[in-house]
Design brief:
The structure is a single chain. By secondary structure, the protein is of the alpha/beta class. It folds into 2 domains: 215 residues, TIM Barrel; 92 residues, Immunoglobulin-like (Sandwich). It is 26% helix and 26% strand. The strands form 3 sheets. A 6-stranded antiparallel β-sheet has the order 6-7-8-13-10-11, covered by helices on one side. Strands 1-2-3-4-5 form a 5-stranded parallel β-sheet, covered by helices on one side. Helix 2 runs parallel beside helix 3.
């Protein structure tokens, strides 16, 4: 898929001796940057079953650990379970960002406070969770029936204040099945912004997608030069157009439980003609229809959405 990063999640420290070193070498050979997950540890933290923990709370031990994994070629860390906004924890965030920067490591906070503009000081901070995200399909009965509505609200609220590590584009059903369509899920890769985008489903889930959808996910960037609000309101619809270089992308998600047809004005495109790829709802929620067309900024298109549906588009200037 040509994705630049991969995450090794909780309890990797329980792997056989030498496993992480071999994994890091394997990733380096394929030009993939690894993130390693950590429990934030310390007396503030009650989570004992997920580790490694207590490696990053003490400043000297943290510097040793960051130097060790940086020497392996690890690209970044994902630090989870903060559980407090007390002053000593806010200071720990700052200390951890500083030490990660000194070790040339990216950092992603989970189970954490809201973004507060810290990446302006520490640009190695690429994302923060602070959201009721896709993992809640495993943990919360609310997520199935309310997920589509919730996603449209996030565009106008949580994601406005900073990068949001929601782990989007989860296609497989967990304990509480999706009521979003697969096209809605694909559109989250554009509708949501995060400096690192974790696609958290199984390899097979992405391998089973149509060729055009796999290519879309392979190519969609995580950094944007321009964002345009196209249409929508919280809870019902959100359509964003983004630009990276000369390529345009659109993500549209519906929170409605009714089918509808969306008239899309393409005036957000720059001058010229574009080869467009459209990924939209099919006849059933798990079906994605791929279409291609030549489009211009003066054009209007009508796109059908299933209940809780969506569409994603890519525009390549000719």
């Amino acid at each position: 898929m040509h994705w630049e990063y991969a995450l090794i999640d909780a309890n990797w420290h329980l792997a056989p001796e030498g496993a992480i070193e071999r994994e890091a070498a394997y990733a380096r050979d394929r030009h993939v940057g690894l993130f390693l997950w950590y429990n934030s540890g310390g007396p503030h933290n009650e989570v004992m079953e997920w580790g490694p923990r207590d490696r990053l709370f003490d400043p000297e031990r943290r510097k040793v650990e960051f130097a060790r994994i940086a020497a392996l070629g690890v690209a970044g860390v994902k630090v989870d379970f903060w559980q407090s906004d007390k002053q000593n924890l806010i200071q720990l965030y700052y200390d951890m960002m500083r030490d990660a920067a000194a070790a040339h490591l990216l950092i992603d906070f989970h189970g954490c406070t809201l973004p507060r503009g810290w990446s302006r000081t520490w640009p190695n901070l690429v994302s923060m969770e602070a959201v009721f995200g896709a993992e809640q399909y495993k943990y919360s009965a609310r997520m199935g029936p309310e997920g589509a509505w919730h996603n449209t609200v996030l565009v106008f609220t949580r994601n406005v204040v900073g990068p949001m590590d929601y782990t989007p584009v989860t296609l497989s059903d967990a304990k509480y099945p999706h009521q979003t369509t697969n096209a809605h899920e694909l559109a989250l890769s554009v509708a949501f912004e995060s400096g690192v985008v974790h696609f958290a489903d199984s390899p097979q889930a992405y391998a089973d997608l149509p060729d055009a959808a796999r290519q879309f996910l392979s190519d969609v960037p995580a950094a944007w030069d321009e964002t345009t609000f196209v249409d929508g309101s919280p809870g019902t619809l959100a359509i964003l157009a983004r630009r990276n270089g000369s390529t345009g992308w659109v993500g549209a998600i519906s929170g409605s439980d009714k089918a509808q047809t969306i008239p899309l004005d393409l005036s957000f495109l720059g001058e010229g003609e574009y080869d467009a790829v459209i990924l939209r709802d099919g006849a059933v929620p798990k079906q994605v229809v791929a279409e291609t067309a030549l489009m211009r900024p003066v054009d209007h298109v009508n796109l059908p959405l299933l209940p809780h549906g969506g569409f994603a588009m890519r525009f390549t200037r000719k």
